[in-house]
Amino acid sequence: MQTIASISSWYANNETLIQEILIYALLAFSIQVALRSGIFSLAGVGFYAIGSYAAGLLVKEQAWPTALAVIAAVLLCALLGWALSVLLVRLRDLYLALATVAFDLMVGVVALNWSSLTGGPLGTVGIPISVTTLTIFITVLGAAAMLALMQRGTIGRTLVAVREDEQLARSLSVNVRRYRELAFVISSMLGALAGAYHALLFTDIQATDAGFELIVLALTMVVIGGFGSWTGALLGAILLTWIPIELTSIGQWWDAVYGAMMIVVATFIPGGLISLVTIAGRASRGRARPSLLRRGSAAAAPPASSSGA
Amino acid sequence: MKDARVAFGGVRALDGVSLTVQDGQLLGLIGPNGSGKSTLLAAISRMIDLSSGTLTMEGRDYTNAPAHLANALGIARTFQTVRLLRTMSVLENVMLGAQAEWVRRGPLATWLWLSRARREEKRARRAAQQALERVGLKDLGRRHPQELPYGPARKVEIARALACEPKLLLLDEPTAGMSQAEREEVGILLSELSKDGLAQVLVEHDLAMIQRVCNRVVALNFGQVIAEGLPAQVAADELVREAYLGHRDAGMEASAPMMEIGRQ
Amino acid sequence: MPGAPAAGEMLQQLINAIVFGSVLTLFALGLSLAWGTLDVLNLAHGAVFIFAGYLTYELTRQGALSFVPALIVSMVGAGAATVALEVLAFRFIRTRFANKRQAELSMLVASIGGAIIIDQVVSNETGATTFGPPSSIFKVREYHLTGSAGITNIQILIVVVAVLAAVGLDQWVRRSRQGRAVRAVAYDPVTSGLLGVNVSFVAISTMFVAGALAGLAGVLLAVNLRAEEVAVGQDYLLTAFAILIVGGVGSVRGAVLAAYLIAIAETAVVAYGPTQWRDGIAFLLILLVLLVRPQGLFAKAQFQRA
Amino acid sequence: MFSSRRLRWPGGALALLVMAVTIAACGSSKPSTTKTTSTVSSTSSSVAASATSSTESAGTIPVTFVGDETGLVAFVGKEVLKGMEVAVKRANASGELHGKKIVLSVMDTASNVSTATVKMSDAVKSNAVAVFGPLLSNEALATAPIAERGKVVDIETEAEVGGLLQIGKYIYRLTPSEFLYYPLTVDHLAKLGVKHVNLVYASDNPTLTEESTKLLPEWTKKLGISIGTSVGIPSTTTEFSSIVTKLETGKPEAIGVNMIGPAIASIASALRTSGYKGTIFCDQSATAGSLKPGGSAANGIIYGVLYSPEMSFPSSKEFTKLYEESFPGEKPQGYDATGYDAMTAFADAIAKSGSDTREGVLKGMQELTVAGSFDGGSGPLKFTGPEHREVSGPGALVEWKEGAEHMLVQGTPGLESQPLKAQ
User: Fold this and answer.
1) What is the mean pLDDT of residues A59-66?
2) Which residues, in sequence order, are bridge partners of residue B171?
3) What is d(CA C236, CA C234) in angstroms, rounded to the nearest whole number?
4) Cβ of A62: how many Cβ atoms within 10 Å?
5) Which residues contact A87 (CB under 8 A, 6 or more apart)?
6) What is the pLDDT of residue B6?
7) C124 and A268: CB-CB below 8 Å?
8) C266-290 in b/e burial notation, b at 16+ Cβ within 10 A?
9) Which CATH number fits domain B1-74+166-264: 3.40.50.1010, 3.40.920.10, 3.90.1150.10, 3.40.50.300?
10) Are residues D284 and D362 in the same domain?
């Protein structure tokens, strides 16, 4: 009983923090699912903006029921996400990343200038609060379950193959384009969910909300947490929401400490912080596996075979 | 495959090559570096587009089909370099081949059709294990590719291709870098597969191996077929010897092929 | 006669575009160099740029140094900050990560961390408010051209320096031994290591040059703008992305052409178009170029590292 | 593999859960995120001393400033806080608090919306009887609903954004809208005989956009001034010469620069360098040193402010004196007055209601607003707006000269330009 009471009081004291974390978790999932499938897309942030406007305006201006508005926002973004993935089908790696960053920022510019719809620089304010923490929590659980399914079995292996070696994947019957499109669409939908919930919980949307800072934050969450698994994205969302809040207590240099932490993790823990958890888990079960921290051995490296086509 | 032509920029990589492989036939493909062997395999497996010509598989034209459909038609291949995914175990790598049929259902089915997925997972595991046993690596399933020496890693590649249950297997220098003993094992394996009725195309520099296992050989140079026939005939062919040794052709760089021949 | 002032205004806007393009060139050269040769998309480049402006402000406001020494010290400081990132993070990532894509990601995040630290230093030391070097270190004068058009001495300096830096960098990458080493690293770090190129030294010196170029741009801009704040660096960074994409990654000439193209486009929008959409131009260009010609408008095939 | 996977990810999830709970436990057991203002300044030690003695003794009235101590507008937050400290000192010394003392604590939002929302809910959960809101508009918009739901009076300062007061009855804004004293500038322009002005404004800033596109045109029209070119540019713009060229077309007698941050000084310098001789006016955001880097080029820029140390209102003089006593050698700025006004209104509210519970604060604030006005650092302030939850002030027109503001005109209380803002 004591524990239940203390958990509930802890929850009551930290509800906003939890809400933030849950919403960022959805955004981080959005980036993670793309990265894990070899798609360096940051378009989730753009869909965060579109999703927040769509859901917020439908609820506020059209008085749609919340559930319907959220679904409509997510479907809209799924469609747009698919269209974007078709447009950007030729791009890979940093080029894709920059194209999607440009898309995100373009969404912001459009939102700022389409005043009749979005309120422009004044933003959209006074959206009725129409979701509960529980709804978002269940959504995050559901999303996590879907992502967990996506990481295992046939589709899990297939997406790894698509990420690591597209040509090989094709030679094994994988329709690479379809799988990439799926990942892109899922990413868009998760971004839209995060945005929609943010709008419906925090009641206001500013055109600058989904700017470069949010892109950087989402990417950082996923890389620091570890993009190999949804658990990494969740860990990143928890830590990067929570750490800045705690760090403010150390005064004006907190940002520098935060930056230093990012450098250290990015440089020395390639699998993200979640890999430490995984390694610790393995060690505790006594199963010696090659450490993720170790550089892969070159045993299977091809010899300098020079025979040509 | 008829009259295939592939051109990269002004360079003709394949120039009017026609090739037919029967069930149970093990076709050896030889030729010096840059003669178009790997290009030919890439063309057959639809990794690259033909600029002209046609590809048929069991009477079906697949010249313009996307790459992943070539595998669906029964064409599996290995690559010149080891291409195992380091984040997966050996068994999982082979399962990539074993699951090919299920993967064709598309991403949504493989993601969300849970009841089928579970059955499929079990079947793929069994098939992958069998494929590993077939190449003689029964116990290596749990290891990771980067822990394997080069020879076994190449065998895993063959197992992965076999797990697709292909009708035509394309092998791009499967024994390069292997020890003599390993090479012989692979040779025996390929002969057995051939006896089981599998059509195979083997790109190989090891002429002794070609002579031992192949029942037909095609020699390529400058993207053209310069000789075709039984292994012994082709090996004796004047043009082939010339191409390899480069005596009368000043434009050829002879040093690399010499080394290859020296392996015999 | 309504035609004459309009013509003068047009000339003035053309001059403005050329000056702006020169600042963009200076900014983007270093970024392009680092990405083209070392595969580092250094997101701290904007912070380094501001850091140099801050150093000049700090060195000159008490009258301790005059313009040229302050410029040199600031460039060295900016270069050193970039080298620090290389030594502390990028170098490890490059050697430890087998997977190139993951290395790119980690470098991105590490450089964000670096940007945060540098921004924090500048922001704390300036009280997070507007700062700028005193006007006494560089007497800005305007020279009148025909009609109402004019150009200031700092603007002339920016254009001249940008052209010299671009030509110099282009020649350095093409001609000199060091330049050849840089290009070798660009093509294949492993092989160039085997061929005796000291990859670590090449990386450090390349990053130093990249940082110093950002510093040069930062100081000149600080003098030209008179006032700046931390956020300015990021705004330049976003525009520079467009320059890299439009010009083609790793191409010095492409970057220069793209910088002027974007400057002209943005100036034209401010002068004659819907000014609020100005920010959108760079992003639109990124999307359009990547859709139509992913290798960049001006890049030559040999610079590509797809 | 399947089975080992099945084992693995719940393991990971479990580990995560454990971590999350640990983190949460640390978070809740450590109220160190709140800290007293003792670090801000040595002269405020009296405030700090009472703060550290005990947190919840009967004699204290705990309040929390959820504000930007670090981050983008830290330079504003620090000043607002100083003003608050001065007000706390005055109120505690005055005895109007029925023998109790206000204890001010600070939660840093770091100018980050997420942090601000979390800190605001921390503050609402704490024993603070009132909260003072964050400074940035988007922070204020995100945090005000939390205070409203928590039924805590939230006194906002600075954040000037439409819709804030509509959030609910617990939300107050004690900083007069700039829209109320900007007309002083327009009046002055008319007096100077200006007929044509050109204008540049930050098109992504709500206040500046509303001011520049709706209000200024109305005011100038009344006074016979025409606006020629009106250019909206994003505040991220870093290249101004093309804008300067555009602003100079038509040779206007005055040019308005309704921008924020360094842009004002940059544009002003560029205008002066290219030989522009007319009047340059701008928005109150030029206060607090953003014109300093402009050097002599910034001389003569005029703008309306809500407070100037040269103001002659008795309450302003009192504030100026108290501030200079608390922070010797420093001159109070508008932001200091803002903090002072917010805290003084709060103290007056407690004095009125005689109760320092949360409901008591609300009641006191309501009584205070019914009274219609109170005297703050920025002069006699009048309650206006929805349920009289915001204030108007007289303001002043200042001119920037050699690194300092000089008052040209003092606004007249009660004669503030009618709030033309569309409600």
Assistant:
1) 92
2) B202
3) 5
4) 10
5) C291
6) 54
7) no
8) bbbbbbeeebbbbbbbbbbbbbebb
9) 3.40.50.300
10) no
Query: Rounded to an integer, what distance in angstroms lies between the CA atom of residue A58 and that of residue D169?
Result: 26
Confidence of residue A84 (pLDDT cuts 50, 70, 90): very high
Q: Return the H-helix or E-strand segment holding D235.
A: none
Q: Which of A72-76, A244-248, C22-26, D354-358 has the lowest mean pLDDT?
A: A244-248
Q: Do D77 and D197 reside in the same domain of the chain?
A: no
Q: Which of A17, A131, A217 to mutate to test the interface with D (most CBs of D within 10 A)?
A: A17
Inter-chain contact B107–A158, Cβ cutoff 8 Å?
Answer: yes
Give the position of tokens 């406007």.
Answer: A53
> What's the whole-number mean pLDDT along residues A215-239?
92
DSSP symbol at B240 = H
Task: Please state the domain extents for chain A.
Answer: 16-294
Q: Which domain does D165 fall in, by range?
A: 56-178+315-392
> Which one has a higher pLDDT value, B198 or D199?
D199
Q: Which residues of chain B have pLDDT under 70?
A: 1-13, 244-264
Nearest residue of D to residue C272 by CA position? D246
Where do the DSSP E strands lie in chain C? 142-144, 150-152
By the 10 Å C-beta count (0-12 exposed, 13-18 middle, 19+ buried), A11 is classed as middle
Which of D120, D104, D106 minimizes the C-alpha distance to D62?
A: D104
Name the strand (E) or helix (H) holding B18.
none
Q: Which residues of B touch D (CB under 8 A)?
A: 89, 91-92, 95, 121-122, 125
pLDDT for position D58:
63
pLDDT in the model for residue A6: 81
- pLDDT, tens digit (0-9, with 9 covering 90-100), for D254-288: 999 999 888 899 999 999 988 899 999 998 888 87
Whether pTM > 0.90 for this model: the answer is no
Of the candidates A138, A172, A137, the one whose C-alpha atom is nearest the C-alpha of residue A154 is: A172
Domain annotation covers residue D272:
yes
Answer yes or no: are the C-beta atoms of D304 and D395 closer than 8 Å: yes
Q: Which of C21-25, D93-97, D123-127 has the lowest mean pLDDT?
A: D93-97
Residue A267 contacts B, CB cutoff 8 Å: no
- Residue D367 counted as domain residue: yes
Q: What are C124-153's pLDDT values in tens digits? A: 888 778 888 888 888 888 888 777 788 889
CATH topology of domain A16-294: ABC transporter involved in vitamin B12 uptake, BtuC (1.10.3470)
Q: Which residue has the higher pLDDT, D7 or A247?
A: A247
Q: How many CB atoms lie within 10 A of CB B7?
A: 14
| CB-CB under 8 Å, A266 with C92 | no
Residue D96 and residue D351 in contact, taking contact as beta carbons nearer than 8 Å: yes
> Residue C247: helix, strand or coil by DSSP?
helix
D187 and D270: one domain?
Answer: yes
Burial level of A85, CB count in 10 A (0-12/13-18/19+)? buried
Q: For chain D, how many structural domains are there in total? A: 2
> Per the structure block, which two tokens stand in for D176?
């007069």
In chain A, whose CA is at the least distance from the CA of C116?
Answer: A259
Most confident stretch, A293-307, B231-245, C41-55, C131-145 = C41-55
Domain membership of residue D267 (yes or no) is yes
Are the CB atoms for D366 and D172 separated by under 8 Å?
Answer: no
The answer, for C275 touching chain D at a CB cutoff of 8 Å, is yes
Domains of chain C: which residue ranges? 3-229
Tokens of A308: 């040509």
Contact status, residue C219 vs residue C211, Cβ threshold 8 Å: no
Which two structure tokens, joined as six digits, stand for A127?
A: 């959206």
Q: Is pLDDT larger for residue A164 or for residue D416?
A: A164
In whole numbers, what is the pLDDT of chain D averaged over residues? 81
- Kindly tell me if the per-residue pLDDT of A307 is higher than 80: no
